């Protein structure tokens, strides 16, 4: 029993570290845009991140075989261009905290898309999460008072939608290949998706990259900490906790993003934005709580 408690404590600590890394990264990415264009930074983040993940596969002696190239390519486009590239674009004009919250509407979109695409119907308390998330987005967008960053907020939502579609595709791929290694499933789409991201970075006009220490640190933070290290923390937590608890822990990331942007960047949410953020946070908590109820048993170690 003591060993079990110790393992759960270690897993929760790993989740907290993961949430801090992912949450604070919104400030890091926003600040990095002073030195590089959004697509330039996204290309560096995804390409070098993929190389690090393949190094992890090699060190851990896991399979590097590419499975289902067309599916992996589409996953790469959704995760790297649709998610990473678009969220970096959103950060150009929008605040880091607000972008983080709107991007993390991903579980809400996943709920809706899983209905027609996976046959997983929205039921019970999930409807409360859906209604709360919709109201939250309406408060943040405040359609009665068009904001200057409406385009940025739309991009952030599109980023979350792209993320959710990649989740749906990943679930379908797991059904066909349940034996597929999780790191392999992350590395190949990241590598394949980084190639069009690099092309976009060259094609879209942008000022020359300013190779300042902060930019180099931001790239390393994204590649090493937010990439390989965070993924290992996630696997460590997932081995010792239920998927629902692990998912709920990761939902701390946008909260930390809002707080960090408030403290470091001076992004103070107004009343409407604050209400919207609280409603979206409540929706994420409801989704996580429902997931915990539906998956009561811990995931076995890989």
Automatic annotation (TrEMBL):
InterPro entries named in the record = AA-Vitamin_Transporters, EamA_dom, EmrE-like
| Protein name (record) | DMT family transporter
Q: Where is the EamA domain?
A: 13-141, 153-288
Q: Could you tell me which Pfam families the record lists for this protein?
A: EamA (PF00892)
Topology relative to the membrane: Multi-pass membrane protein
The opening ranks of the lineage are:
Bacteria, Pseudomonadati, Pseudomonadota, Betaproteobacteria, Nitrosomonadales
Q: Which SUPFAM superfamilies does the record cross-reference, listed alphabetically?
A: Multidrug resistance efflux transporter EmrE
Species for this entry: Methylophilus luteus
What residues form the membrane-spanning segments?
Answer: 12-29, 41-60, 72-92, 98-118, 125-144, 150-170, 182-202, 214-236, 243-263, 275-292
